[in-house]
């Protein structure tokens, strides 16, 4: 049995053009309308009109400084609206954007910089020392740009990208179906992190699908199709495809995003009360912390909060029950997606049953296969396979791997075990992937095993995940030592591994 989302019109207009047009519309409707406000410093804000100009300035800086279509710029910063502007400026100049976790060690950072061959890296005060260490000896890195003041030489300050008049330079032409826009890193269903090649067409069609879905959801609730909330709290990291794409669609709709540099529970609750926030987008780790903070919740009036939307990993049932005990009218909705599928494949509609991740979004088809390859019927458990315009172009420098994931009908395996009901409402059961999800971050057992095996005292090692109430999962290693099985040997192996990740 195969389920199809609503029909979706083809949209191949580069997404930066779509967004710039929308920013101009928002600006003309209200010149003072803010696109972003920094949560930790509300004086640090940018209007839609200002954002438009800065994106154009940044794109022209890239062209003037010799960056070519297909070059890669790496974002290695905590959340900041300047990184969002830099991403759109890069896309307008034909430059591909990759993004690295702001919590990476120099070892992890160097791996991604070398693999994607980043020619420019944008950092902040938190990540600059890590990036400087990671780029030692890498001659292909042309520039490091910091959004923080007083950078050490030869690091460039971000404001210098904006210290120029707009000259209306000609930008490279974009082939939406082949040119890359985003290069996030994912371990896929197994192995070390790999660059996921997302095209302009992937983003454009994903945006089109989300706009159609949300318009339909609003209509079902009796709201105008183009209804938007005035403010949104954004603390999902923009190095993750979920965080970046959510920033895109929220800015497209014209909502002011209160952007958190780092997540802060009390600051979040303060803003829920101040801005009467109705919907929060969370990862499970934050939802669990919220559920375990009843005393803190009592300090603030968060009665406006009606919905929590959770993605990136399943939310423990216990956390849902705790949240509903504290907030009886709260609705907890979940969606489903993968980095390799741009953002989302399933979203919950107003009539979706509790516990499901919803039905396939517009333009998306799904099927569920048993181990013998036959298709599942309703309520039969199997592996989820997806087909749609949001499917990645392939893995960076490993294009042949996509062939191993896609069947003869063009459906890509997800590695997730699910079942569905007669309406196509989908329920996540388990993962057959090797990956361990720690605070929504993918941890590949093979990578940890490889690092442990570098130690002279390790003969063999097996890493696996165990459930953890706070982080979702945590990795555990079973080690076979070559020599003594004593405490000193264990500590030495742990120290070796920790040096790579701390």
From TrEMBL:
The protein, known as: AMP-binding domain-containing protein
Compartments, record wording: Peroxisome
Start and end residues of each AMP-binding enzyme C-terminal domain: 447-501
PANTHER family the UniProt entry points to: ACYL-COA SYNTHETASE 7 (PTHR24096:SF257), LONG-CHAIN-FATTY-ACID--COA LIGASE (PTHR24096)
Pfam family, one: AMP-binding_C
Record key words, sorted: Peroxisome
Record's GO cellular component terms: peroxisome
Molecular-function GO term, any one: CoA-ligase activity
Main location: other
Ranges for domain AMP-dependent synthetase/ligase: 28-396
